[in-house]
Amino acid sequence: MNKGIIFDIKRYAIHDGPGIRTTVFLKGCPLCCLWCHNPEGQEIHKEILLRRDRCPAECFICLDICPQKALRKPNGEIQVDNSRCDCCGKCVEACVYEALKIAGCEVTVEEVLEEIEKDRIFFEESGGGVTFSGGEPLMQPDFLDGLLKECKKRKIHTVVDTSGCASFKTIERIAKNVDLFLYDIKIINDRKHKHYTGVSNKDILENLKNLVDIGKRVVIRIPLIAGINDDINNIEKMARFLKSLRKIKQINLLPYHKGGCAKYKRLQREDPSADLKQSPDEQIKSIMSILMNYGFFVKIGG
Ligand code: SF4
Ligand code: SF4
Description:
By secondary structure, the chain is of the alpha/beta class. 33% of the residues lie in helices and 22% in strands. The strands form three sheets. It has a nine-stranded mixed sheet. Strands 3-6 form a two-stranded antiparallel sheet.
């Protein structure tokens, strides 16, 4: 049975491709971008999330119930030792305050399609469909391939939201059942790219070129983070590279937001994005006009 791990399904999404969409978030990502807003999607395995704001730190039922002794209360507050936790879910079931949750659940292709089918009427009315996002959906190629094939069999429009960080063989394999790629480009300088994302951009840029060459429809997404990639030098170089591919028409700019910060707390991980800021409006306007001067259709969000 073709199974994978997802960490969310978002219904009625309007920023993940055309029309009204159902977005399925697959777990696992080879990058660790400083500005990641879905840190619970980075690890491919399940993880426990703790909402301290919901836990009054009084009952400690979870402590006694945990077979792995993965929960502690060093300062009177619950702490999870993820290296011991095997995500059995016993503490989640026991906590009446719903302070504990597991990020990630194992599902079959059929189970995901069952959820997707509930929104078919919205897809048909709005020209929407399903978007596979993450994490990085290409981290689970067999599962993603199975999902895409099944969507195509049912005539559902498909979008894959990707960092492009995979072998081109993998991308080519799934591409035949993808109607549109939302492809992230972050920083053109490879040294800086490695510094802020943990990986080189060489294969990512090469994969984009190859994807365009095999005739796939691609919309570029650029996350904008103040002082990291919103400088004119980076934008100009990205624009020149994208123009050289000839077939890219649309770029969506995604100004940084603080959506990931609360999630780092729930994962009990240090937040590497704590000092990051959104680019000023004036800077975003300048970036838009540079990209438009290169002939791209530019949108904020999406
Ligand atoms: S069971 Fe829930 S409310 Fe009680 S201590 Fe554990 S996390 Fe907090
Ligand atoms: S999920 Fe299971 S192993 Fe993990 S902390 Fe809860 S009870 Fe312990």
